[in-house]
Amino acid sequence: MIPAGLINDRIERIARDIVHELVLQNNVGIVVLCVLKGGYKFFADLLDKIKQLNRNSEESVPLAIDFIRLQSYKNDKSQGEIQVIGGDRLENLKGKCVLVVEDIIDTGRTMIKLKELLAKHEPECVKVASLLVKRSSRSTGYRPDFTGFEIPDEFVVGYALDYNEHFRDLSHICVISESGKKKYAV
Ligand SMILES: O=P(O)(O)OC[C@H]1O[C@H](OP(=O)(O)OP(=O)(O)O)[C@H](O)[C@@H]1O
Ligand SMILES: Oc1ncnc2c1N=NC2
Ligand SMILES: [Mg+2]
Ligand SMILES: [Mg+2]
To answer: Which of 18, 24, 33, 175 could make a disulfide contact with 154, Cβ separation 3.0–4.6 Å?
Structure first.
């Protein structure tokens, strides 16, 4: 389990790393791209921290935001096929530095698919921040540029992570029990 307080502290640290690496060393516009649905909590809290840091530093860079919805999980398994369900048209990413904000990298398929999609729009650079990275044998080995926590190969919910759309509203990140998986299986 990762309690909300620990998540908050870790996001403060990641925000600092991102501001140093991305915001201060960039002369192109930055677009922060939220990967819905699971990424929305990390996205909102991370943006708040980045804005706080921006306010305190003399130079602050305007951050544009964009959303894309990608779906591939049913129960606790990736369906292999990543569906792109709506989201902004990504034309305005051309020449920009894109910061992708995701909740978790498990097999890595979602991120690989997203990077392919983004490449078509010729961004200046793509950096990925994921709150969680799962150490799993199913992983393609993809690693994001910024990571919150490395977690063991367990299915977790809460803080916008779901199991068939349940438990996104939990404040903490918890491992779902076998009985919970059975009860909410589709
Ligand atoms: O690395 P992967 O194995 O691809 O798994 C990670 C992705 O799967 C989940 O999304 P999901 O398909 O559950 O959609 P959701 O974000 O709407 O919950 C999660 O939010 C990541 O986007
Ligand atoms: O542990 C997880 N919890 C929620 N959603 C996902 C997970 N792994 N890949 C997608
Ligand atoms: Mg997702
Ligand atoms: Mg999900």
So the answer is: 175
The interface pTM score, or ipTM, of the predicted complex is: 0.99
On whether residue 97 sits in a domain, the answer given is yes
Ligand 2 pocket, mutate which of 156, 163, 172 (most atoms under 8 A from CB): 156
pLDDT in tens, 94-144: 999 999 999 999 999 999 999 999 999 999 999 999 999 999 999 999 999
Cα 162 to Cα 53: distance, rounded to the nearest angstrom: 30
Looking at every residue in the chain, the average pLDDT score rounds to 93
Q: Is 153 noted as a catalytic residue in this protein?
A: no
Domain count, the chain: 1
Q: What are phi and psi of 52, to 5 degrees?
A: -60, -45
Residues of the chain with pLDDT under 50: none
Pocket lining: 37 vs ligand 1, CB cutoff 6 Å = yes
| Residue 133: strand, helix, or coil | strand
168 in a structural domain: no
pTM of the shown model: 0.96
Q: Is residue 162 a part of any domain in this protein?
A: no
Q: Domain residues for 66?
A: 4-152
Q: Tell me, in angstroms, the distance from the centre of ligand 3 to residue 111's CA.
A: 9
97, two tokens: 């530095």
Task: Give 25 Cα–ligand 1 centroid separation in angstroms.
Answer: 30
Query: What's the CATH code of the domain at 116?
Result: 3.40.50.2020
Catalytic choice (106, 145, 153, 162): 106
